[in-house]
């Protein structure tokens, strides 16, 4: 089984929670893509009906549109029955890191309006503590003086590069030297930690207090179910 097979298995399992008539949050990323295509397939087959999709990115909006999934937004549907989305890290408390696809702001806006958030991952995403993977923890920042904001983020964690616990890097667009620009015309500063963040609630509050920070990629106390697919099978963990 390839990693993508595992992503598809987890995604299809999550779609079993979808019922006709639901308002659905449609996630972003390679795992969520499988869930969106599965929903489209069931609609085509008449096994699902009266679904309204609330996309979490322009990319997912385009995918869902092409599949004929009826779409709307939070202004028209402030309460969402169920969202299905991927994650970059999942800790034992079902706290998440998301946003390596750059969609964390719209994902967090949609998913904080959901009754249920079902997260779908392959087992490589499971960590003991957020920040522990050594991979990026994304922070959406306004473009204005982004380097100043990046330095303030580093200094929160005793950073400043080198031996510091955190290094901040501006995310660049594919191949080019240009900054990556989000669906909301902001930049992303990726934080790289030397080890697990530890007190994630305190880190969240401190980051959000920095003027210039729009949102960060930690999704705390938001997931209600995590479906993880691994070589030994699929686990479903509820909050
Ligand atoms: O960018 C995102 O938030 C994605 O959902 C990410 O967290 C998971 O992406 P993947 O399914 O492609 O690994």
Automatic annotation (TrEMBL):
Originating species: Persea americana
Name by which UniProt lists this protein: Uncharacterized protein
Native organism taxonomy: Eukaryota, Viridiplantae, Streptophyta, Embryophyta, Tracheophyta
């Amino acid at each position: 089984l390839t990693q993508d097979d595992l992503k598809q298995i987890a995604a299809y399992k999550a779609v079993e929670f979808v019922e006709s008539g639901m308002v659905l949050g449609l996630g972003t990323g390679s795992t969520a893509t499988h869930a969106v295509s599965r929903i489209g397939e069931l609609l085509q087959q008449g096994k699902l009906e009266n679904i309204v999709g609330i996309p979490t990115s322009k990319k997912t909006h385009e995918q869902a549109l092409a599949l004929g999934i009826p779409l709307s937004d939070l202004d028209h549907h402030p309460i969402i029955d169920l969202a299905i989305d991927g994650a970059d890290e999942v800790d034992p408390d079902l706290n998440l890191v998301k946003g390596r696809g750059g969609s964390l702001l719209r994902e967090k806006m949609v998913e904080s309006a959901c009754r249920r958030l079902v997260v779908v991952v392959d087992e490589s995403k499971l960590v003991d503590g957020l920040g522990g993977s050594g991979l990026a923890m994304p922070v959406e920042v306004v473009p204005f003086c982004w380097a100043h904001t990046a330095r303030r983020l580093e200094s929160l964690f005793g950073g400043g590069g080198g031996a510091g616990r955190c290094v901040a890097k501006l995310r660049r667009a594919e191949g080019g030297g240009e900054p990556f620009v989000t669906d909301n015309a902001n930049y992303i500063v990726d934080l790289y930690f030397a080890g697990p963040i530890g007190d994630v609630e305190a880190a969240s509050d401190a980051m959000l207090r920095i003027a210039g920070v729009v949102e960060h990629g930690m999704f705390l106390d938001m997931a209600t179910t995590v479906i993880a697919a691994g070589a030994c099978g699929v686990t479903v963990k509820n909050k």
